[in-house]
Automatic annotation (TrEMBL), chain A:
Gene that specifies this protein: paaC
Enzyme Commission designation: 1.14.13.149
Protein keywords: Oxidoreductase
GO MF entries: phenylacetyl-CoA 1,2-epoxidase activity
Organism: Sedimentitalea xiamensis
Chain ranges passing through the membrane: none
Chain segments annotated as coiled-coil in the UniProt record: none
Cross-referenced Pfam families: PaaA_PaaC
InterPro entries assigned to the protein according to its UniProt record, in alphabetical order: Aromatic_CoA_ox/epox (IPR052703), Ferritin-like (IPR012347), Ferritin-like_SF (IPR009078), PaaA_PaaC (IPR007814), PaaC (IPR011882)
Protein name: Phenylacetate-CoA oxygenase subunit PaaC
UniProtKB/TrEMBL annotation, chain B:
Gene (name only): paaB
Annotated protein name in UniProt: 1,2-phenylacetyl-CoA epoxidase subunit B
Segments of this protein annotated with the region Disordered: 1-20
Gene3D superfamilies: Phenylacetic acid degradation B
Domain of life: Bacteria
Record-linked InterPro entries: PaaB, PaaB_sf
Length: 252, 113
């Protein structure tokens, strides 16, 4: 069972940004237009930068001499603590932007709460990351609106993306023993407290985007606990970790 | 259909309808740097509306901390001289050196200007 809940929590924050950052980076060079290509690459780099801070602190807290790179590149799928939403495949551009918005809207609320963490190191990372996340959510929200309220084709694709990804939203807000321990210590907020504002935010954006939020509270789980990741994570790690696996310790 | 006024009656006046390209309009981007006094033209990009033009400009042109303010202007709103106007527009001023304020003695107290 979970060793140190603080370490687990930091891995959750860092693995969310690492896995999503890698997913977003998969668009590099293939996005539908040049402007979006650069914007997606910027987002991916922001997320990877945040990963360095979260996993760097995780390694420090763990005290076994593991660096952020060690944690990112040398753990296997079952050791990852990202929510299932972040590891879902890119699909089409609309699906990627829907995934991004569903995550960003949670991320910005979470980071904002973390700026008031009782742990100054966590508060400091959050203060830096929340500025990036605020831009991410504005951009992904605008794109969801633009495509949702766009052509018949783009609307259809965005609704399909929302229907597909909605069951992965719940995991962000359902606390387990790690989340409870963090809330108790004042390190992180009670996740259930973030839900109402998230739902409001989503309702506004989806209404403007003319999209219908599925009427279902079903939530996949198993990502942040590491109990059961989706099949997609292993395939992603195979590519992401290949170099360090094939040439251990390689640098440039 | 050729119009009777056309110089080339065999060629239809209205160009054949091209397949419509669903391209975003072009925007010209101006950025004021950290210590810059004014916005400078840095390039152009495509965006569906003004709001996204600003966002795209942020992502394309300020990712290395270049700016503190962005202007986006849709390219079609910019009135410009054409290269054909070069003669009458610019050449007459070439021979008018007296328009440069270089014929005054500047007092030393003024310093560098």
């Amino acid at each position: 069972m979970a060793a140190d809940p603080f370490f687990e929590f930091l891995c959750r924050m860092g693995d969310n940004t690492l896995v999503l950052g890698h997913r977003v980076s998969e668009w590099c060079g293939t996005a539908p237009v040049l402007e979006e290509d650069i914007a997606l690459a910027n987002t991916a780099l922001d997320l990877i930068g945040q990963t360095q801070m979260w996993l760097g602190l995780a390694g420090e807290v763990e005290g076994k001499g593991r660096s952020a790179d060690d944690l990112a590149m040398l753990r296997d799928a079952w050791d990852f603590r990202n929510v299932l939403l972040t590891e879902q495949p890119n699909g089409d551009f609309g699906q990627t932007m829907m995934r991004q918005f569903l995550f960003d809207a949670w991320h910005v609320a979470m980071l904002d709460a973390l700026t008031r963490s009782t742990d100054p190191r966590v508060a400091e990372i959050a203060a830096k990351a929340v500025k990036e996340a605020s831009y991410h959510v504005e951009r992904s929200g605008d794109t969801v609106i633009g495509l949702g309220d766009g052509t018949d084709e783009s609307h259809r694709r965005m609704q399909a993306a929302l229907d597909l990804l909605w069951p992965y939203v719940g995991e962000l807000f359902v606390p387990d023993s790690v989340d409870d321990a963090m809330a108790e210590a004042g390190i992180a907020p009670d996740l259930t407290d973030l839900r109402a504002a998230y739902d409001d935010h989503l309702a506004k954006v989806m209404a403007t985007a003319t999209l219908t939020i599925p009427d279902s509270a079903f939530a996949h789980k198993g990502g942040k606990s590491g109990f059961r990741h989706s099949e997609h994570l292993g395939h992603m790690l195979t590519e992401m970790q290949w170099l360090q696996r094939a040439y251990p310790g390689a640098t440039w | 259909m050729s119009s009777p006024n056309s110089a080339y009656p065999d060629i239809p006046e209205t160009p054949p309808t091209k397949p419509r390209r669903h391209e975003w309009p072009l925007w010209e981007i101006f950025i004021r740097g950290q210590h810059g006094m004014s916005h400078r033209h840095v390039g152009s990009l495509h965006a569906p509306d003004a709001d996204m033009a600003i966002k795209n400009a942020r992502d394309v042109y300020t990712r290395r901390n270049e700016g503190v303010s962005i202007w986006a202007v849709e390219a079609r709103h910019i009135a410009a001289t054409s290269p054909g106007d070069k003669g009458p527009f610019y050449e007459p001023s070439e021979s008018k050196v007296y328009r440069h304020p270089t014929f005054f003695d500047i007092p030393d107290d003024v310093g560098a200007m």
